[in-house]
Amino acid sequence: MSEEVKLIVDGKRRDGRALDELRPLKIEAGVLHEADGSALVHWGGNKVIAGVFGPRECLPKHEANPYKALVKCRYTMSPFASKEEHSRSGPNRRSIEISKVIRQVFESLVVSELYPMTQIDIYVDVLQAEGGTRASAITAAAVALADAGIPMKDMACGLAVGKAEDQIILDLGKEEDNSGQSDVPIAISHRDKKFLLLQMDGLLSRDELEQALDMGIVASDKIHELQVDAITRRYSNLESDGVEL
Amino acid sequence: MKKIVVPGEQLYNKPVRNESMYVEDNNTYAAVIGFMDEENRFVPTKSAYRPKPGDAVVGVVVYIRSNGYKVDLNLPFEGFLSGKDTRVPFSMGEIMFAKVRDVDEVGNVDLTDARKLGPGKIVNFPSAKVPRLIGKRNSMLQTIRDGTGTEIFIGNNGYIWLAGGNIPLALKAINIVNKKSHTSGLTQQIADFLAANKD
User: Are residues B4 and A232, on separate chains, in Cβ contact within 8 Å?
Assistant: First the structure.
């Protein structure tokens, strides 16, 4: 186990990517019949599906807010998502944390004042995990919310930046996440480039962090393009995929 | 095909207040998915229904109280029809066509002018596309009524009540409106479709 594996050799990463290159990303909108809005994201080895319901009656009722809709989120990992143990059902410490950060991202985007006393549910299931599932989850949830027709001030996407072998890298895969020096998952709103999520595992100097975030902003535009493309494909092809009455 | 607009895209460089848009720094941005029509108006493709006073709605009585009726309106909450506002007695499960009299700040809906609709089929239609299904001066609705002989009532809340005539054909026509709601000349298309499929 003590054998050192180089994560970056000659400016190329283990999977052949450049330092500022994303893993292959595919997004599809409107994949579920019963949800009001949905999206499926394939990002490298990640497969993440998001379904959105609402605005609907707030339960339990004592949580209802007469001034705005509540945004609720549940992130879960399926038993077959990765080599680690996920087989016990129900939330664990990690999934509760990720549910909370996803919720906070969308609380700042959804125009919740329009729907008092209601709740908007975001369900994210990770079918397969390969590092960066919370970023994939946020990217999928943003498309699902838009697909559900829930008013939002902006689109957002999630991605990770970090450091391995003393170099700043974009979109960390599982190995880079586990053995790299730093992993910084972020969520960026598209129009005003606000950071809606910023977590850091490991250490970065201030200069390194700024460099990493700049790299993330550039990449977020590419992800946004793919999100818009997914929505456009869904809504320009209604004739073949309208909802049957 | 028209370009699809996603939330956060700028629509106008002047403030326009509307529930499917929002204003920031005197610019107007889209809040939901939609597209721009020929007259540069933003048309949302899908958005959750928000009742306004004056809306016509189709509802189902789900609960009878001593002072009135609770009515399912395809909303997070039931609407309320006061017993004072109606002379027609309703029983559970009966369908009504009513007007929204008032919506308070937390979204409670008060109904008035209720009219009983007999037994019929209720289908759900995206509320954002209801104006398209009614058409200019009822043109689309009348076309479907004439072509199928079906009695149809359309609520702004997205519930549609149908009875009598050729209901399957009427539903097919409604489905076409749903799928092609972004195209122009739709009323003529529907008229042609109904004429071609008439037995």
Answer: yes
| Burial class, B120, CB count within 10 angstroms (exposed 0-12 / middle 13-18 / buried 19+) | middle
How far, in Å, CA of B122 to CA of A52, rounded?
A: 24
Domain shared by B82 and B137, yes or no: no
Domain of B131 in residue numbering reads as: 121-197
Answer whether B44 touches A (CB < 8 Å). yes
In a domain, B49, yes or no: no
Look up the CATH number of the domain holding residue B37: 2.40.50
Q: Tell me the nearest-neighbour CA distance from A197 into chain B, angstroms.
A: 18
Report helix, strand or coil for A140.
helix
Same domain, B20 and B64: no
Interchain CB distance below 8 Å, A149 and B45: yes
Tokens representing A145 are 């919310």
Q: For residue A5, is it within any domain?
A: no
Give A122-140 pLDDT, tens digit per residue.
Answer: 999 999 999 999 999 999 9
With CA atoms as reference, the chain B residue closest to A58 would be: B76
* Of A132, A158, A140, the residue nearest A216 (C-alpha): A158
ipTM for the predicted complex comes to: 0.87
Q: Dump pLDDT digits (tens) for A5-58.
A: 789 998 899 999 999 999 999 999 999 988 999 999 999 999 999 999 989 999
Alpha-carbon distance of B111 to B192, in angstroms, equals: 38
* Residue A173, number of CB atoms within 10 A of its CB: 22
Residue A3 forms part of a structural domain: no
How many domains is chain A built from?
Answer: 1
- pTM value is 0.89
Q: Given A117, A154, A239, which is nearest B7 (Cβ)?
A: A154
Own/partner long-range contacts of A203-210 (Cβ < 8 Å, ≥24 apart): A204/A163, A208/A163, A208/A168, A208/A182, A209/A184
